[in-house]
Amino acid sequence: MINPLKFIQSVKQEAFKVTWPSAKETLTGALMVSILAIIASLFFLLLDQFYKFFLDFILLINF
Q: Would you place residue 56 in the very low, low, confident or very high pLDDT band (cuts 50, 70, 90)?
């Protein structure tokens, strides 16, 4: 059984070893994620519209 106090101390020691990103790196990463999410959503919107047009065209031919 591990001592809870020793566990908390070891967690604290490990937390000090972490290299946290700077504010600039965090902002850059957040902007990149946002831009890529917008690009992906536009891509899938265009793809969906293309498939809708194609399916409507095929269904129109059948009637």
A: very high
